[in-house]
Amino acid sequence: MLRVCVPLSTPRTTDEIRAEHPELFGDRKHYFRYAVSSDSAHEPTDEEDDPILQEIVDLYLNTVGLKMNAFILDELRLVRTRFPIELIRRTFRRARQNDIHSLSWIVREMIRKKRGQDEIEGED
Fold first, then answer.
1. Are residues 80 and 98 in the same domain?
2. Residues 9, 32: contact at Cβ < 8 Å?
């Protein structure tokens, strides 16, 4: 999975820049708007290590397309929490076999299949 860290860490610290170019800053304290230490730029989360979410993202990229943004990733996180991985794999495989490149179709199919399974289990 790709992770974009915001804000990105700067290649040099503010102290290094001040030491290299003291003539630019003078006596007053100069604020570096975009200077961020590399320690605070990346805070790892549990999601980064989730192999099932990674597999779902790979299925999406291989089936639907390479377009990825925060909304799509949130949708894939919801898919991960609401459906069993076997159903997700089967539905993405069906979409690929039928040349369907729509995440909304895939989600609708999973909802339909899950409802059908829940109704069958409810009758027993």
1. yes
2. no
